[in-house]
Write a structure and sequence with these properties.
With 370 residues, this protein is of the alpha/beta class. It folds into two domains: 249 residues, P-loop containing nucleotide triphosphate hydrolases (Rossmann fold, 3-Layer(aba) Sandwich); 108 residues, no CATH class. 32% of the residues lie in helices and 19% in strands. The strands form two sheets. The protein has an eight-stranded mixed beta sheet with strand order 6-7-8-3-9-10-12-11, with helices on both faces. The protein has a four-stranded antiparallel beta sheet with strand order 2-1-4-5, covered by helices on one side. The radius of gyration is 23 Å and the shape is globular. Bound molecules: adenosine-5'-triphosphate. Adenosine-5'-triphosphate binds next to strand 2 and helix 2.
Length: 370
């Protein structure tokens, strides 16, 4: 296969794919459970399908406990999965430790929320980066090669001049600088995929944008495929090409970020957007509307609700929503925009149309009729 403009082999845009990814954590049961021999399981992730592409950021958005970190850890092969397939460049891959895991980690790197916890306080920046370069075979042969590679890494994350940072300990750096070191360490593997789990949520608001801009610059210059995990849907609009919304272990909506954030189609996405702390939008009246529209608790993942998991909180729930799991349905005529919500089933829309219609979510994501 060649690209249209050159004779060079076309590079596969899909780097990492998850198909039907599922993780149920067994939890220690109460005596009653032990006697019945049924092990309770937390349904942390169910049937998640997603694709990470070269040079693109995919945001995975949802509230705390929705399963976002578990998805990242499954993709990083830090956890065994209950079901599903992970494909790297089209090849199914399962690794559990040892050399195969190191080979996988060379291509798929993870960045964690708390850079202070992920850097060892007794070691310098030089130590952390040298180790990453050596483990992944990128330290070169000579001391001069290593020195050049260390400087290049620090320059790539704009910690310049490198000499100012190489011999610093983590506590001598600001939160933003520490996260840049953690990113440099991930880049030491020369990866194709970065899994960034809430990479800025522990940083001061004033420096978040700088770190997000750095990640965006890296995806553009290094053509990295980036998974950006966040509970802040506003930052997804700014930073991600594509946005996926997760609720109680399942994906509920996906599409390009502009569409998902500006014209949300799933009632849960609307709730997330309405409850985001946007001073322009959230007025007293706005808050009241949010409360009316399903402010409440996410369900227990030990016994998730049947049908759509959002139905107990959903102001638009129909009898069908508590019984049948909605598949991903295309939203209106917008290719690539989907929502797992029966409101977007053409049959439902036809049945609900007319003067007695209940609330429907229109193509613009707002109520069409009431
Ligand atoms: N090792 C584990 N054993 C049992 N349950 C777990 C384990 N790890 C996560 N869970 C549960 O799985 C569910 C999803 O957790 P996860 O951390 O993936 O969510 P999250 O969306 O990343 O939340 P947060 O933003 O708070 O990190 C939660 O109910 C959590 O308690």
């Amino acid at each position: 296969m060649t690209s249209p403009d050159t004779d060079a082999p076309a590079v596969r845009e899909e780097v990492l794919e998850a198909i039907g990814l599922t993780k149920h954590f067994p939890v220690r049961g109460r005596l009653r459970d032990l006697l019945s021999r049924a092990t309770p399981r937390v349904h942390a992730v169910d049937d998640v399908t997603l694709t990470l592409r070269r040079g693109r950021v995919t945001a995975l958005v949802g509230e705390s406990g929705s399963g976002k970190s578990t998805v990242a850890r499954l993709l990083a092969q830090l956890y065994p999965r209950t079901a599903g397939t992970i494909r790297l460049h089209g090849e199914p891959v399962t690794v559990r430790g040892g050399r195969p895991f190191r080979a996988y980690a060379r291509r798929v790197q993870m960045i964690f929320q708390d850079p202070f916890a992920s850097l060892n306080p007794v070691h310098t920046v030089r130590y952390h980066l040298t180790r990453a370069l050596r483990v992944h075979g990128n330290a070169g042969r000579t001391a001069a090669d290593l020195d050049a590679a260390l400087r290049a890494l620090l320059e790539r994350v704009t910690l310049t001049p490198p000499d100012r940072y190489l011999d610093k300990f983590p506590h001598e750096l600001s939160g933003g600088q520490r996260q840049r070191v953690a990113i440099a360490r991930a880049l030491g593997a020369d990866p194709e995929v970065l899994l960034a789990d809430e990479p800025v949520s522990m940083l001061d608001v004033s420096i978040r944008l700088g770190v997000l801009n750095l990640l965006r610059d890296l995806k553009e210059r290094l053509r990295l495929a980036v998974l950006y995990i966040t509970h802040d849907i506003a930052s997804a609009r700014y930073f991600a090409d594509e946005t996926l919304v997760m609720y109680a272990g399942r994906l509920v909506e996906g599409g390009d970020s502009e569409t998902v954030t500006q014209r949300p189609a799933h009632p849960y996405t609307r709730l997330l957007i309405d409850s985001a702390p946007d001073p322009d939008r959230i007025t007293g009246a706005g808050r009241a509307a949010v409360a009316e529209r399903g402010d409440g608790e996410p369900p227990s993942l030990l016994r998730p609700p049947p049908g759509c998991r959002f139905h107990p909180r959903c102001p638009y729930a129909m009898p069908r929503c508590g019984a049948d799991l909605p598949p991903p349905l295309q939203v209106g005529d917008r290719p690539g925009h989907w929502a797992a919500c029966w409101l977007h089933d053409p049959a439902t829309r036809d049945a609900q149309a007319g003067p007695t219609a209940l609330a429907l979510v229109g193509d613009d994501g707002r109520e069409a009729t009431r």
